[in-house]
Amino acid sequence: MMRESPKATPWGQSYRIAFFTLYAAAIMAACAWLFSSIYQIAPDSRAIVYRFGKPVRVEGAGLLFAWPYPIERVERVPGAERILERDVLALQREQQLSQINSWDRDNDAGAGAGYLLTGDAGVVQLNVRVFWRVSDPVQFALQQPHIDPLIDRLTERAAAVVCVGRDLDSILVTRPETLQNDSHAAQERIQLRSDFKQAMTQSLLKLADGGNDPGIRIERVDITSSLPENAVAAFNAVLAAGQQAEQAVASARTAAALRTQQAQQQSDRTLQQAEANRQEILAQANVDTQTITQLADARRAGLDGGLLQRIWRDKVTRILAQAGQVITVAPGDDSRLILQGLPAQPATPTNSEKQP
Predict the structure, then answer these.
(1) In 212-222, which positions are buried (b, 16+ CB within 10 angstroms) versus exposed (e)?
(2) Residue 155 near residue 251, CB atoms below 8 Å
(3) pTM of the entire structure?
(4) 56 contact partners, CB below 8 Å, separation of at least 6
């Protein structure tokens, strides 16, 4: 009886199938391992190649070949062309209250949560959104888990520095009635975003000088400023009171101007009447003294010509015309005087005549 070959036995066939299966699996794993070293990098991204955990090179967009893991590892980071944004929630009141214990919310810690102090002892709320990009891919990749907290801390510091160096009117419009008259405050409000960005950039430069460069650059800062809810009503009340005061002042000025105008008109009329009376009295005085003035001028010039006698006779004639009796006295005889007689009085009855 002939002996069967090992390949023809069932065990031989099983071994053969298992061998080819493992061989195919090994080939497929090797192919997968080799193909896993090919990466496609998006146009707005960059790739950092780590060799045994150490960054060795930075690659741009396109296909990238690297040794398979664990020899090399590829990490994708945003490229310099991509602008990322971060909505900073750390400045919002709800976020800060959530970090305060419930028994501390009723004291100063809870009252001041989410508010920033201004240079004129006012308070304001800021909602900030930061737009940034990656400037150093390697430094960014090394500190990527800490980038968002870093942006929050830089924003909080910049907000405190910018607000404390400004008054409330240079941050937001609190008094609309003075907006057209306060051009400096309007310019300060426009400059607010630029100063905010500059403060954050200076903080990043200080980190870079200290050897802790996060590898990011601030591009733009959007700021929405608002007043606390309980302060809005107070500001509205102050604004209404100011408007009412201005209306009262305007009414008082109008009344004062009217009374001043009336007083000025009365003063003008009084002056005109006084001037007319003065001219009338002066004219009457000139008429009354014209004769005496002519006489004085004539006697002063030695040209009397009997003017004094004529005036005397004219005046004496008027006087004597009013007298009831005239007694003439010889010149040089002063034994008798001319006395003005009393006017005739009606006869009064005696006491005996009054009695019946």
Answers:
(1) ebbbbebeebe
(2) no
(3) 0.58
(4) 49, 50, 72
